[in-house]
Design brief:
A hairpin with a 2-residue loop joins strand 7 and strand 8. The protein has a seven-stranded mixed β-sheet with strand order 1-5-6-10-9-8-7, with helices on both faces. It has a three-stranded antiparallel β-sheet with strand order 2-4-3. Helix 1 runs parallel beside helix 4, helix 2 runs antiparallel to helix 4 and helix 5 crosses helix 10. Helix content is about 40%, strand content about 20%. It has two domains: about 90 residues; about 230 residues, BirA Bifunctional Protein, domain 2. The N and C termini lie far apart (about 90 Å). Bound molecules: zinc ion (ZN). Zinc ion binds next to loops.
Length: about 350
């Protein structure tokens, strides 16, 4: 019996030594110390022992039981510590690892240039005005001194909704709406989409953006126009930019001019960007035609004003050296992410 007990002890300690987890320990406890366990089975045979042997074997059995229990406890805390260590290792954060960059998106290049232009004019005391994209013929043409059958209508291929409603071909109609409702002094810029039935190519799009500007007050002169435009263009393209004005014709301004800037690509020496001329045409402008002021109920004998208009895409293409207008509308993130 004594031998049997010693055998149980040896095999129990072996099993415990190789137990890999808490489940294996519990299995071993049941196998050796449980109600139907090996040690219990041996003790059940104690009745056959002599009175002399019984206490000795009993003491030995108790000793073996507590030895096995001790081993189980020790192993249990060992396994728990190992588990804790593995868990900590898995959860550890290496603060020296580079972060994961979250792509947050960014402003469209046209929006950036538009904001830039707006801020420049707001800094000069201008306000932002808006008008409808679907516009009456009257505001888009007639009030701007472009009556029916006027040749200027042919230069703007117009989308007609019906006989007297159009998709606006220019933001100039907003000037009229503002002048009808506002007593001078007026200082506004009017940014917005305009529509022309042009075929899409590298420099034309049936939808593009214009920014219209208007100043009306007593004693406004061509010198105010030139100063404002020059300040704006230098702000946008850099202080070293040269600006020149060429006489031009628009029905709604008199006199009219086009403003050119020295080429941002070659600085004026001549290159493919400026077609060898050293200058790039950037906007149209002029003194508001007296007839237009009168159309809006502003007395041209008392007030004068100037207006200007430019295409946002053209400005952005120049600023960022982009050679195809279609890139703005294709929404290719590889392109849009460069600005
Ligand atoms: Zn050039």
């Amino acid at each position: 019996m004594k031998e049997k007990l010693e055998q149980i002890k040896t095999s129990a300690l072996d099993v415990l030594k190789s137990a890999a987890d808490i489940d294996a320990l519990e299995e071993a406890r049941i196998r050796f110390l449980g109600k139907k366990g090996e040690l219990t089975a041996v003790l059940k045979g104690m009745g056959q022992l002599s009175a002399e042997e019984r206490p000795k074997i009993g003491a030995l059995a108790n000793e073996i039981r507590s030895s096995i229990e001790n081993h189980i406890d020790t192993k249990k805390s060992e396994l728990a510590a190992k588990l804790e260590e593995a868990k900590l290792k898995a959860e550890v954060i290496d603060v020296t690892m580079p972060g994961k960059v979250q792509h947050t998106g960014e402003l469209h290049p046209l929006t950036k240039v538009m904001n830039n232009i707006k801020n420049t004019f707001i800094g000069m005391g201008f306000e932002i005005a808006e008008g409808p994209d679907v516009e009456l013929d009257y505001y888009n043409f007639e009030a701007l001194n472009i009556p029916p059958n006027h040749p200027a209508r042919d230069t703007q291929d117009t989308f007609y909704i019906n006989d007297n409603t159009v998709l606006r071909t220019q933001t100039s109609g907003i000037q009229i709406r503002v002048m009808e409702k506002t007593k001078p002094p007026i200082r506004i810029i009017a940014p917005g989409k305009v529509y022309r039935s042009d075929a899409l190519d590298a420099t034309h799009s049936p939808v593009f953006h214009q920014i219209e500007g208007l100043v009306v007050d007593k004693g406004v002169t061509m010198a105010d126009l030139k100063g404002t435009i020059e300040t704006f263009l230098k702000e946008l393209y850099g202080e070293s930019t040269k600006v020149r004005f060429r006489p031009h014709h628009f029905p709604f301004t008199e006199p009219s001019a086009e403003a050119d800037i020295s080429c941002f690509s070659c600085g004026g020496k001549g290159c493919s960007m400026c077609k060898g001329e050293g200058w790039i045409e950037i906007l149209g402008c002029g003194m508001v035609h007296p007839k237009v002021l009168a159309n809006c109920g502003i007395d041209p004998e008392v007030y004068s004003g100037f207006a200007f208009g430019m295409g946002l895409e053209r400005v952005a293409m120049g600023k960022y050296d982009i050679n195809d207008i279609r890139l703005f509308f294709e929404n290719d993130l590889r392109f849009l992410g460069q600005f």
